[in-house]
Amino acid sequence: MNTIPVANPAEQSLPRNLATWLALLEKRHVSEIDMGLERVAAVKQRSDIRFKCPVIMVAGTNGKGSTCAMLESILMQAGYRVGLYSKPHFLDFNERVRIAGVPVNDEVLVAAFNAIEGVRENTSLSYFEFTTLAICHVLAQTPLDVVILEVGLGGRLDAVNVIDADVAIVTSVDIDHVDYLGDTREKIGFEKAGIFRANKVAICSDPHAPQSLIDHAEKIGADLRLFGRDFNYNGDKQQWNFAGRTQRRHALAYPSLRGANQLLNASAVLAALEALKEVLPVGAQEVRSGLVMVELPGRFQVMPGRPTVVLDVAHNPHAAAALSQNLDNMGFHAYTFAVFGSMLDKDIDGVIAQFHNKIDHWCVTALPLPRAASHQHLAERVLASGFTPDAEHSLQEFETPEDAYAFALSKAGENDRILVFGSFLTVAGVMRARRQGN
Predict the structure, then answer these.
(1) Cα–Cα distance between 19 and 240 in angstroms, integer?
(2) How crowded is the C-beta side of 217, counted as CA atoms within 13 Å?
């Protein structure tokens, strides 16, 4: 006699699609950010997440996304099958995990979420912790030649740090997330150095690496490689050169990613490839092609057309200073409009100060998160910076980035520039509006 299989009640209650899963995770855990590795490590052990290929981990105040993107692009040009975990996403959660350059589909992610839920037991995990484990599960279950993992916040206590990296990169160290990481570069440097491992390569491309980072690497016995001591670059307007401990690369193309700081990031990338040259050899032409072809949304991204539109997720003073310098290098624009939104816990005054006398029309916006700064608060801080509205300068407040961008677009002439910057949510809102044709 045939029997009808009875569904497991627990499986019946699991979300059936990605959107429902993400909505559940957003409200399940009491804290959006919950520092510590004990809970994540326990679930990881039960899920048996193991990588059978080299793992490169990237942390830093700024430059993480660019560094990951360049690593992915070069390694793919060399013919390797690359898995990448980066964050946050702009429009679709699937952007966070790519296999061979392609975001994974909803079905793969739902299966991974179900797998983590199956071993979670009674352990409470934040949205970031749960999704990190699920994405690591996807990468561990996929035949890959190399895995690249971008750290979210800090390093030492970030959920990604339950994975042991073969090569760990810290791109830059500056003041950000002071409530969680500390209020000095030395404190923050120690937190970021937490991704280093004994007897493994540790790279720091910050030209002024904090002593705390150096001391921690030496204490645990990591193979520390510092910019200016163990690797460096030089170049002219046409090309640049890299010099590492044992490897030199000449006549390199500049990265297609715009910005004066990208050679620091590219140098860290080449230092990592130097460290892995025995297991992942990469030729000179593959490096050149990878640098030319790399793409990364929202990092000094200049959109085609008129008026000029620049998208940048600069949300701390260090990143804002780099953005300001990059704007100076763009050439003449009659007026600059700025669409700006920020989280309330950021150094908003420090960010605004980087654009003194560089923005003619501020369009400040609220964002759809409780911890975001209100448009009223941002307007107050712009005025406090010394900005004075007059016939040639204005300050407008908006409820959404889409509304702020629509206003700027309606006022800007073809020789003007619209700068969209601040939180990822600011840039994401404008990306969404542009995708919808608004």
Answers:
(1) 45
(2) 25
Is the CB of residue 339 less than 8 Å from the CB of residue 408?
yes
- pTM reported for the whole predicted model: 0.90
Cα distance between residue 376 and residue 310, in whole Å: 24
Which amino acid, 267?
S
Q: Give the Cα separation of 128 and 36 in Å (integer).
A: 12
Compute the distance between CA of residue 364 and CA of residue 381 in angstroms, rounded to an integer: 10
- In this structure, are residues 430 and 338 in contact, taking their beta carbons and an 8 Å threshold? no
Q: What is the phi/psi pair of residue 302, to 5°? A: -95, 115
Q: Give the model confidence (pLDDT) of 49-70 as tens digits.
A: 999 999 999 999 999 999 999 9
- Confidence band (pLDDT; 50, 70, 90) for 75? very high
Alpha carbons 147 and 81: distance in angstroms, whole number: 9
Tokens (6 digits) for 339? 């669409």
- Name the CATH superfamily, with its identifier, for domain 301-435: Mur ligase, C-terminal domain (3.90.190.20)
Three-class SS state of 303: strand
Beta-sheet strands, E only, within 293-371: 301-303, 308-312, 336-341, 361-365
Residue 427 · residue 311 · CB < 8 Å: yes
CA nearest 192: which of 208, 220, 171? 171
CA atoms of 145 and 56, how far apart (whole Å):
11
pLDDT for residue 99 is more than 80: yes
Where are the chain's structural domains? 14-293, 301-435
As a CATH number, domain 14-293 is 3.40.1190.10
Return mean pLDDT, the chain: 93
Instruction: Tell me the C-alpha distance between 215 and 363, whole Å.
Output: 44
pLDDT in tens, 366-402: 999 999 999 999 999 999 999 999 999 999 999 999 9
258: confidence class by pLDDT, cuts 50, 70, 90 = confident
Distance of CA 29 to the CA centre of its chain: 23
